[in-house]
Amino acid sequence: MNIPDVAEALSLDLVCCGDKSREATSVISGDLMSFIIGKAISGSIWITVQNHLNVAAVAVLKEIPMIIVASGRPVMADLKTRCDMENIALAISEESSFTLCSRLYDLGFRG
Amino acid sequence: MVSDVYVEEYHIDGGDFINVGTASTKLKRSLEMMGIPSSLTRRASIVAYEAEMNLVIHAGGGTICCLISPEKIQIIAEDNGPGIPDIELAMQEGYSTASDAIRELGFGAGMGLSNIKRNTDTLDIISEVGKGTRVQAVILVKSMAGGREIGRGN
To answer: Across-strand partners of B133?
Structure first.
């Protein structure tokens, strides 16, 4: 499923569009940087409540095409700038990580 | 004689959570430009990132030196920080001495050194309390026998 379709299906507020042609193939949820570095698969959608610049650095390392900041957490300006620069989609949602995961599961995604 | 080793060195400031990740991102770009296979590029940049984090969180800064040759990628992180009293304990996943404030940012999960180990072919850590730490990680580009890329994932 490509990024715009994911954003539309989950009614996400897309702050950075990222690479619209890139497919998201899996989902990971977590707030520990080293956990994501250790476990994320390239192409995953990353759901987190972390909203600082380093989220983008980790996404670059793990070739994550889309970050969803959950639970209505505000997105820091420098995170938005970096995601724009790196062509990573950045979305915000009022829903919790748990709810977002369950909705992505219903769309056919698996972790 | 011309050396076939390409060197990149980065200075990392202690406590600089804004720019952390810059060195590993630059290294990733350099390796991609050199045509290093993506699996190796990913492993090297993960090693560099975790080393950067350790310098920022624990060591009060330091340097990361990357030596890239056709045979291997060496990443050497050095600091003059407090040192690691028990390296074996520090290598255990989940063990961390990071403060609560750092943990709230998602760092200090106690997975840094184990992530480094998982992504390297050889890892040497030398540390002296009160003097500093040297972490030397090597990722082999080609096996010595057949020139085959080491196909290790992460």
So the answer is: B79, B127
